[in-house]
Design a protein that fits this description.
Elements (H helix, E strand, L loop, with lengths): L3 H10 L5 H10 L10 E6 L2 E10 L16 H7 L5 E9 L8 H15 L4 E7 L3 H9 L3 E7 L11 E8 L1
Parallel strand pairs: 3-4
Antiparallel strand pairs: 1-2, 2-3, 4-6, 5-6
Helix pairs in contact: 1-2
Length: about 170
């Protein structure tokens, strides 16, 4: 997440909390999109090298909750532009394994999951400055659908826009 998740978790944890505990709790949840239940972890020699977390978005848009943190508002707005798609929430690889085909393989798995779930396509959100990820997604058939300005709060990052990429099945 280019440091976004850690920045957000740090805000949620507050002065005395541990942001990693917040992140672990979110992923350890039995419910919700970010749950470990929606994760695929690729291993090499018994060690994790990359992962995908994805899930189906509903067919209807969802209004933003009144207490939604401002930095999540543009992300929520972009997700609402892709109803009925399989949302790739996380695609991550350790740096030494990038460019080795693992990301493409996980995206192909996401396509199979989307098709199996009856979704009309796939969607994901990336920063405008993440050129390596953008190249991967575009090679795999994703195209830009929309942009929203990033609300950074405490997140220190050079990007200015969140970019919604979609792919039709």
């Amino acid at each position: 997440s280019e440091g976004f998740a850690l920045s957000f978790w740090t805000t949620l944890a507050g002065r005395d909390g541990n942001p990693w505990d917040i992140g672990r709790a979110r992923v350890s949840s039995e419910t919700g999109g970010l749950s470990y239940r929606n994760a695929i972890v690729a291993e090499l020699a018994g060690r994790p090298i990359c992962c995908l977390i994805g899930y189906a978005l509903g067919d209807e848009t969802e209004p933003a909750a009144g207490d939604l943190p401002p930095l999540l508002v543009p992300l929520h707005a972009l997700m609402n532009l892709a109803p009925g798609t399989w949302y790739v929430h996380v695609l991550a690889a350790y740096p030494q394994y990038r460019g080795s085909g693992y990301g493409s393989a996980l995206l192909a798995q996401a396509e199979r999951l989307a098709a199996g779930a009856g979704q009309s396509g796939l969607s994901l959100i990336v920063t405008d400055t993440n050129t390596g990820a953008r190249r991967l997604y575009e090679r795999c058939g994703y195209g830009e659908a929309a942009r929203r300005k990033i609300v950074k709060a405490q997140w220190q990052h050079p990007a200015t826009d969140w970019v919604l990429l979609t792919k039709r099945l």
